[in-house]
Amino acid sequence: MTRRLSKLFLIFSVLFILTGCWDYKDIQDIHYVTALGVDYEDGKYVVYVQLVDLSAVAKTEAKSSEPTKVYIGKHSGKSISEAINHLYQTAQQRLYLGQVSTFVLTDKAIEHNINDIVDAAFRFNLIRYSSNIFATKKPLDELFSIKGFFNLTPLYSELHFPKPIYENLSYIEPITLRTFISTYRDVSITTTLPTISWSGNDWTEDKKKRKTFTIDGAYVIYYKKSMNWYSVEDLKGSRWITKKTNRTPIEFTKANGTTYISLTHPHVKIKPIVKNNEAKFTLDVDIKGSILELSTNDSLKNLEKFVQDYIKKDIEQTFEIGLKRNGDPLGLGQKLYRKDLRFWKTNNINEPKDYLHANSFEQININVNLANAGTLEYHPFKNEKLPNN
């Protein structure tokens, strides 16, 4: 009898210490915010949230024949916190910010007071620093309403997954909230904040025009001192000075035909040189590429020379545009700061115009190696004449 009671006591003791699921909630019991946007109108911050049914996202065995529903919340307040708290009150279930994958700021919000927005992002500790961050010139409610192809949720789009698009076509690199906050507060680093927009010209669905996301430019921000918007065309030179460029094309047409070349992973060296209390830079770029389309009979040597000049012109153009706007889109300031801190402090450098000038580049050296024609059966080129297509 005593042994039986001991066993029962042991069993009940174990039951008491077992982990339970008394506070378990199904995925449909919580409203998960997948994107959060901030606008500024009539002296108030306007916060937008995007809700997507995550239970629909989890169903991967078969695609739904019905479009996924997207809910958008909107409220204004004197502060971002006030606006979000109002949305908490009107949501029909608990709002959870821990699944926010994208943070979007309108141009009006950025130009009003980007510092308040950055501070608010710090305070909302539920928002993940791994979230994407974009600026936009478009209405946030329309931006958040664009869905993925094949009745998929907006989560399967460039708004939430920009990295694969960048790897396929590397112009302006997407950044995370962590990167934005860390670089924005650095005295020497230029932050490039991509702007996301949409296009209704390229795709149709059942013969109807369909909106799709696209990166149309970026805000180039320098330590709270300088902030201007640049188009993709303005920033063409930036892609040649980052090793993260996975694939970027150039196309040029001559009298005897068109050539299309894909270039990848440039190796870049930027060397600051201080002479007579003036900063200058030498830039070396080594890049490889493939010829994807060829309608000329130029020699490989001439073709590589043309690409070298093309890249150099891109870099010079982006630098000159930045110089006119008191910006540093090529990020030269960070290299100078790390190389010669004494020069930086002695000259009280606070913004790009304090260290950049028309003759900042002492040398720009570009080396291009076009290794193949983009096909498995084509052998590496030598300096022979290229065949006509």
UniProtKB/TrEMBL annotation:
Residues 23-196 form the Spore germination protein N-terminal domain. GO terms for biological process: spore germination. Residues 217-369 form the Spore germination GerAC-like C-terminal domain. GO terms for cellular component: membrane. Keywords: Germination, Lipoprotein, Membrane, Palmitate, Signal. PROSITE patterns: PROKAR_LIPOPROTEIN. It comes from the Bacteria. It holds the Pfam family Spore_GerAC_N. Belongs to the GerABKC lipoprotein family. This is Ger(X)C family spore germination protein. It comes from Peribacillus butanolivorans.
